[in-house]
């Protein structure tokens, strides 16, 4: 990295492990986490960054917390729905605008 030019974030993502106000979205007892955000700026899209971020978060959730399901909000815009489907995520239930995706092994069909 060049110290003279500031680094630009290629994307970001986050998970919630426990959501007491809505345990359907995130609960350690059900091994479900909630993907709160996954964002890649337009200048960095179509370069694999979003897939890398999602895969990293998914792996972390499965390996560190034993996650079996990831919930996420696909209501934000139509582009996100197509993106998550391209990742192989299956919408298993509609929870008020939230799609439920299974953990790493079932998402990949293993």
Q: Oligomeric state of the chains?
A: single chain
Secondary structure tally, helices: 3
Tell me about the biggest sheet? 4 strands, mixed
Poorly predicted spans: 94-98, 104-110
Mean pLDDT: 77
Shape: globular
Structure notes:
There is one protein chain. The protein is an alpha+beta fold. It has helices spanning 49-65, 78-86, 104-107, and strands spanning 12-16, 32-39, 69-73, 98-102. A four-stranded mixed beta sheet has the order 1-2-3-4. The protein starts with 11 loop residues before the first strand and ends with a helix. Mean pLDDT is 77; it is low at 94-98 and 104-110.
Topology overview:
Blueprint lengths: L11 E5 L15 E8 L9 H17 L3 E5 L4 H9 L11 E5 L1 H4 L3
Parallel strand pairs: 2-3
Antiparallel strand pairs: 1-2, 3-4
Keywords summarizing the entry:
single chain, 4 strands, disordered C terminus, 3 helices, 27% helix, 21% strand
Task: Summarize it.
The chain has 110 residues and is of the alpha+beta class.
């Amino acid at each position: 990295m060049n110290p003279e030019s500031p680094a630009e974030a290629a994307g970001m993502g986050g998970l919630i492990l426990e959501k007491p106000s809505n345990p359907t979205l995130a609960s350690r007892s059900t091994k479900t986490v909630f993907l709160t955000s996954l964002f890649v700026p337009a200048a960095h899209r179509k370069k694999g960054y979003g897939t890398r971020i999602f895969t990293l978060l998914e792996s972390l959730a499965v390996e560190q917390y034993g996650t079996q399901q990831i919930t996420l909000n696909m209501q934000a815009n139509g582009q996100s729905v197509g993106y998550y489907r391209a990742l192989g995520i299956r919408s298993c239930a509609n929870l008020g605008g939230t799609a439920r995706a299974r953990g790493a092994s079932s998402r990949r069909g293993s």
